[in-house]
Each structure stands twice: as structure tokens, then as C-alpha cells.
Inverse folding.
């Protein structure tokens, strides 16, 4: 981890391609207020990004992911905050059994991609969603 605070996000996909989205609180003191985002948050000192992703997902949604895979990293400079923050994005497949629960923000639900086009989201979110879907399709083809 760099000297800058690391942020993680988790793209949790349902088998039909819907992603779990969190409706952020509408407060001016937080990044992306009022937007629909992938769950995630800040890493604790010494915490790896994957451990942070697993912890944040459970803290915010009550979902215990059996596995998360690294998807990509980028510099999150879309909200004008300084310093620019590195973000690691992970993805996983929802097991279809564990319930999810909104533990942070205004709401939490699985959203189909077509429906998400009508929601307010960060400018990079759909590209990340598409990339996660391409990984999911690749795994499906590889595993038969």
C-alpha cells in the first residue's frame, strides 16, 4: 500500500448479471454523495486490499464472500478530492443463498445493468461493471 489511503470496491454479480449496488448517503462531507456505487471503503493500516474488500463487503452488506478476485486498480480522481486516492476493485459471484442487508447508506439492492443506466452512478462505474462481466463470461467459457 502507498502512503495514500487505499480504497476498495467490490463488484458482486448475481448469475443474471445484476450487481449489488449501495445508494450512498446524501451528505456533502463524503465522496459520491447520493450516488449508487459498488460497496467498499478504506483499508485499515497494514490491511491488504483483498482483506479490506472482504471486510468492507461484510460490514456494509452482511454478505460473507467465499472468494473475491482482483479486477483492476485506478486512481480515483473523479470527485476532486486531494490527494487522489488509489482504488483496487475486486469482483465475485453472489452465492444466491446468503441474504444481503443494507448496513450503510440509503439502500442496497441487486440492480440489472439496463436499470443502472437510469441511476446516478460514478462516471467509471459502467466500464468497471462491463469488465467484471467479461471476466465472468470468460470463467463460464473456460469451465464449460
Amino acid at each position: 500500500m502507498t502512503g495514500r489511503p487505499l480504497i476498495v470496491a467490490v463488484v458482486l454479480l448475481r448469475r443474471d448479471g445484476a450487481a449489488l449496488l449501495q445508494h450512498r448517503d446524501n451528505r456533502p462531507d463524503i465522496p459520491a454523495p447520493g450516488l449508487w456505487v459498488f460497496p467498499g471503503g478504506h483499508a485499515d493500516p497494514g490491511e491488504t486490499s483483498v482483506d479490506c474488500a472482504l471486510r468492507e463487503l461484510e460490514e456494509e452488506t452482511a454478505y460473507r464472500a467465499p472468494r473475491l478476485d482482483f479486477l483492476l486498480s485506478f486512481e480515483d480522481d473523479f470527485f476532486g478530492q486531494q490527494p487522489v486516492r488509489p482504488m483496487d476493485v475486486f469482483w465475485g459471484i453472489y452465492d444466491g443463498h446468503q441474504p444481503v442487508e443494507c448496513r450503510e447508506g440509503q439502500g442496497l439492492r441487486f440492480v440489472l445493468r439496463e436499470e443502472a443506466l437510469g441511476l446516478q452512478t460514478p462516471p467509471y462505474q459502467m466500464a468497471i461493471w462491463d469488465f467484471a462481466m467479461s471476466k465472468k463470461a470468460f470463467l463460464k467459457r473456460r469451465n464449460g
